[in-house]
Amino acid sequence: AQKVTQAQTEISVVEKEDVTLDCVYETRDTTYYLFWYKQPPSGELVFLIRRNSFDEQNEISGRYSWNFQKSTSSFNFTITASQVVDSAVYFCALSENFGNEKLTFGTGTRLTIIP
Amino acid sequence: DTAVSQTPKYLVTQMGNDKSIKCEQNLGHDTMYWYKQDSKKFLKIMFSYNNKELIINETVPNRFSPKSPDKAHLNLHINSLELGDSAVYFCASSQVRSRSTRIHRLNYGYTFGSGTRLTVV
Questions:
Q1: Is the pLDDT of residue B98 over 60?
Q2: A98 touches chain B (CB under 8 A)
Q3: What average pLDDT score do residues B41-48 get?
Q4: Which of A45, B81, B83, B85 gets the most CB atoms within 10 Å of its CB?
Q5: In this complex, how many residue pairs, one in chain A and one in chain B, have their CB atoms less than 8 Å apart?
Q6: Residues of B with Cβ-Cβ distance to A39 under 8 angstroms
Q7: Do A109 and A7 contact (CB within 8 A), yes or no?
Q8: b/e code A50-60 from CB counts within 10 Å (16+ = b)
Q9: What is the mean pLDDT of each run of 10 residues along chain A (115 residues)?
């Protein structure tokens, strides 16, 4: 069965600091997809990134970057120069390709950026 | 244009009532889902439909019945509401290929609706 672990329940950092959110996953499939979603206080789920298991290249998008390491089954998310608007709950999720298409979510990390 | 829209956004109702939440997507996706987010923010899938066919039913009480009249709509009907049903319900859609093929399928990612906060009193 697939499983996603986000060990950090809550993180607080001062604005402009860098912060990394950890995500560790378990799956029996060799083909799978990993996701990050942001849930701001308003409640909607905002898609940030999707990565398939064949692509281990790290990705950067503005202040956001993602480090995918199959050897450690991790897909960590870093925000550089954090801003107050980054305060939210962040979810990592896993979808196995050959099976049903459900997303298995981690329990989320609540990130608070202190001005 | 909203890609995945849910109505209502808020729903407050008494125990024992029956209520429905509607979901529509205009992305042309062939798969739709219902997820439940509990008070601790934990997100878990409830149902999935692919082209109006139920493909996932994750040990959800029989009081919950999804209905998909066409592939752009997936509604959720809840009978005899209980206090424990209070949660945020998210609809989502994605584009995947037919389950009948073993060819590598591309999951084009999920799009979620904005959620329906259900409060049972």
A1: no
A2: yes
A3: 93
A4: A45
A5: 62
A6: 41
A7: no
A8: ebbbeeeeeee
A9: 94 97 94 92 92 84 93 96 97 76 93 97
Tell me the CB-side half-sphere exposure of residue A49, using CA atoms within 13 A.
22
Which tokens hold the place of B7?
A: 């109505």
- Residue B77 has a pLDDT of 97
Are the Cβ atoms of A102 and B45 closer than 8 angstroms?
Answer: yes
**Is the CB of B42 less than 8 angstroms away from the CB of A107?**
yes
- Partners of A52 on chain B (C-beta within 8 Å) are 107
Cα Rg of chain A (Å, integer)? 14
Q: How confident is the model at residue B97 (pLDDT cuts 50, 70, 90)?
A: low
CA distance B39 to B36: 10
| A95 chain-B contacts, CB cut-off 8 A | 107
